[in-house]
Specification:
mainly alpha; 3 helices
Length: 100
């Protein structure tokens, strides 16, 4: 098993939740910076739609991966996807803050 106690599971879930909250806040700030009030809804809508679709389909896809490759597979898949996204963003996304 990945966690040997409830405390380990709690800490792991706390870290995952904190990361998700930081990501969501950062995404909102970034999208606000690159959009104007006139196109803000059009800019943010695909991201929020993606969160909804991910929430709906994530458990099913994770279940299929877990059934086919073992219970570690969904976590490895998500971890690899997030690391890839982080690296892609680090090297491609430009600073959006305007100089003072």
């Amino acid at each position: 098993s990945v966690c040997s106690s409830f405390a380990e599971l709690f800490v792991a879930r706390f870290c995952a939740g904190s990361g998700g909250a930081l990501f969501m806040s950062s995404a909102q700030l970034f999208l606000t910076d690159i959009s104007t009030p006139a196109n803000r809804a059009r800019t943010m809508a695909p991201v929020y739609a993606g969160f909804g679709v991910g929430t709906a389909l994530g458990p099913a896809i994770g279940g299929m991966l877990g059934s086919a490759y073992g219970l570690h597979a969904p976590f490895v898949f998500v971890g690899g996807a997030m690391m890839s996204a982080a690296l892609l963003n680090y090297f491609t996304v430009k600073e959006t803050r305007k100089p003072d």
